[in-house]
């Protein structure tokens, strides 16, 4: 992912995808009545106490140059890795595709757990580090979000800002590509880059009956591509339940007895689930940009949609004060003015001047979403909409959408979206009822008004996860563990992707201290806000908690 952003939130993409902006929303139904609740069978995790796992916990990372890892990455991440080679080292950590302590849950859910012939039973997780500058006390594992976000370059990304200097003095910064992602093996790739380009040009945002038939066919083709690539068993073990187990093996492989970790966006969900799976292995966890583990995918997506609308309106107020704002000087009319600009793209995409491709309606909406993650890209959104309005081409907006999808200028995509969809299926119960699905999408469009396609939505394709080869392994629930001084939550009042209230709720549920950042943008820790960085750094290094709740304000 780009250095200045974290990945998209894990659930918003589901509803965006359902509207033809990417793949479709993935969902699965559950009606299991067993003597033991299958959703409690895999927690806590067995960890290093399980005899079959001892060989994995005994390994140590063999650090070396990052060339091999870079060459296994997407073009975008490879380019970043080349830039970072002077700073970071890389290695791999071997983990079982199927952990022995989840097989009982797999059987109860009817999920595949035997690795197919010709498929690997051992995955290799790509890891990177920037070594501590002083006496090493441990390593700090980093996840940028997603799911599906590559974290390989995060060690170097966080090492650069002065904000992390205090941490880097005593802690290695350790990035990793979760199973299925980037330089890790196997690497999930469900469709070709050309097919992804074609998917993005799908123009029927309101879905005619003919379009629904077509989209259902494409969903089946997509799922079959996923299975062909890595096998049904790997797809059933790509979710958060399995990634947190990988994180614990990584913890041991870098030589740490307990985990020090910072997770952004979806990475907060990894952190809260790790805390439940390995409650005795926590040293210091910072969770910034909280995904609420108590919400189902519908409520989470609707709330995230409302967050993006709020941020769009904040951008509109800023734009209205600028010279030549393309949506005019009345922020209250910004959404309707945006619709006037982009709705025509559904029938006639805008040409580009230098990119030799066209800008679709869905890409114009994705460009807005991408630009709202940080105020640094607000001027780019203004420029892109100016170009579109004046007929100067859709290049800037298309470039913003490309960045969101991880597409490099050579046409190569990071596999973020494929892993995102797969994890979505394994982490979320879904709704197979057509009427409820329709209601959900309408609620979403009402919450995120600028993304409204402008027509009556009467049909929706079947949920992709309803044909997925496995049922979800996690359900919404209140975390069963408390911080006990080991967890710090950071939440931003103007976060477009993960609403501020989610951080407040998680801090309350886990009895964890909260740092409130009053400002705009997705996530705040170690991003140059001195007040936030001071509290985060002091917590990571010294385990010091100043108050149960502190407030930091945006600084220029």
Short description:
The protein is an alpha/beta fold. It has helices spanning 12-21, 54-58, 67-72, 75-84, 103-109, 154-159, 165-168, 193-200, 209-230, 232-236, 240-253, 266-277, 297-320, 334-342, 361-371, 378-390, 395-405, 416-427, 434-447, 500-509, 530-542, and strands spanning 89-96, 122-130, 138-143, 171-176, 259-264, 282-288, 350-351, 358-359, 487-494, 514-520, 549-553.
Give the key terms.
556 residues; alpha/beta; Rossmann fold; 2 domains; 21 helices; 41% helix; globular; disordered N terminus
Describe this structure in words.
This protein has about 550 residues and is of the alpha/beta class. It has two domains: about 10-35 and about 40-190 and about 225-295 and about 475-555, 3-Layer(aba) Sandwich (Rossmann fold); about 295-405, no CATH class. It has 21 helices and eleven strands. The protein has helices at about 10-20, 55-60, 65-70, 75-85, 105-110, 155-160, 165-170, 195-200, 210-230, 230-235, 240-255, 265-275, 295-320, 335-340, 360-370, 380-390, 395-405, 415-425, 435-445, 500-510, 530-540, and strands at about 90-95, 120-130, 140-145, 170-175, 260-265, 280-290, 350, 360, 485-495, 515-520, 550-555. The chain has a nine-stranded mixed beta sheet, sandwiched between helices. It has a two-stranded antiparallel ribbon with strand order 7-8. Strand 9 (about 485-495), helix 20 (about 500-510) and strand 10 (about 515-520) form a beta-alpha-beta unit. The radius of gyration is 22 Å and the shape is globular. The model is unreliable at about 1-35 (pLDDT under 50).
């Amino acid at each position: 992912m780009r250095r200045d952003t974290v990945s998209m939130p894990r659930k918003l993409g589901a509803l965006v995808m359902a509207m033809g902006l990417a793949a479709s929303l993935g969902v699965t139904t559950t009606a299991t009545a067993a003597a033991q609740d299958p959703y409690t069978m895999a927690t806590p995790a067995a960890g290093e106490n399980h005899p079959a796992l001892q060989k994995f916990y005994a390994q140590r990372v063999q650090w070396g140059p990052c060339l091999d890892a870079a060459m296994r990455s997407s073009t975008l991440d490879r380019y970043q890795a080349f830039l970072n080679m002077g700073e970071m080292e890389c290695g791999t950590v071997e983990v079982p595709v199927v952990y022995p302590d989840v097989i009982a849950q797999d059987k109860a859910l009817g999920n595949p757990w035997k690795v197919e012939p010709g498929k690997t039973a051992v995955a290799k997780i790509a890891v990177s580090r920037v070594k501590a500058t002083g006496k090493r006390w441990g390593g700090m594992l980093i996840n940028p979000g997603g799911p599906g976000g590559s974290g390989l370059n995060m060690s170097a990304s966080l090492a650069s800002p002065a904000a992390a200097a205090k941490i880097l003095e005593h802690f290695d910064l350790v990035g990793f590509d979760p199973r299925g992602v980037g330089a890790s093996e196997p690497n999930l790739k469900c469709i070709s880059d050309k097919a992804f380009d074609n998917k993005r040009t799908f123009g029927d945002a309101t879905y005619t009956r003919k379009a629904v038939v077509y989209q259902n066919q494409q969903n089946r083709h997509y799922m079959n591509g996923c299975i062909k690539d890595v096998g049904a068993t790997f797809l059933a073990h790509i979710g958060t339940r399995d990634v947190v187990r990988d994180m614990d093996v990584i913890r041991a492989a870098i030589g740490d007895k307990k985990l020090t970790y910072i997770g952004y966006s979806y990475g907060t969900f990894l952190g809260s689930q790790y805390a439940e799976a390995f409650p005795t292995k926590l040293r210091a966890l910072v969770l910034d940009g909280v995904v609420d583990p108590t919400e189902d995918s519908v409520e989470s997506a609707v709330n995230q949609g409302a967050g993006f609308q709020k941020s769009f309106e904040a951008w509109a107020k800023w734009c209205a004060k600028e010279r030549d704002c393309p949506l005019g000087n009345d922020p209250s009319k910004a959404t309707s003015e945006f619709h006037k600009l982009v709705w025509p793209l559904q029938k006639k995409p805008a040409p580009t001047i230098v990119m030799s491709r066209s800008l679709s309606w869905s890409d114009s909406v994705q460009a807005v979403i991408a630009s709202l993650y940080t105020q640094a890209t607000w001027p780019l959104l203004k420029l892109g909409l100016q170009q579109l309005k004046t007929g100067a081409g859709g290049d800037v907006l298309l470039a913003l959408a490309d960045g969101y999808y991880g597409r490099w200028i050579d046409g190569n995509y990071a596999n973020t979206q494929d892993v995102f969809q797969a994890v979505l299926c394994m982490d979320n119960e879904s709704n197979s009822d057509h009427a409820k699905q329709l209601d959900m999408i309408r609620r979403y469009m009402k919450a995120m008004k600028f993304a409204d396609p402008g027509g009556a939505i009467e049909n929706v394709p079947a949920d992709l996860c309803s044909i997925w080869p496995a049922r979800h392994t996690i359900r919404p629930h209140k975390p069963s563990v408390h911080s006990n001084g080991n967890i710090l939550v950071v939440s931003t009042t103007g976060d477009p992707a993960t609403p501020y209230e989610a951080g407040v709720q998680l801090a309350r549920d886990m009895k964890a201290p909260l740092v409130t950042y009053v400002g705009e943008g997705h996530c705040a820790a170690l991003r140059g806000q001195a007040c936030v960085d001071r509290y985060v750094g002091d917590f990571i290094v010294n385990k010091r908690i100043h108050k149960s709740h502190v407030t930091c304000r945006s600084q220029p």
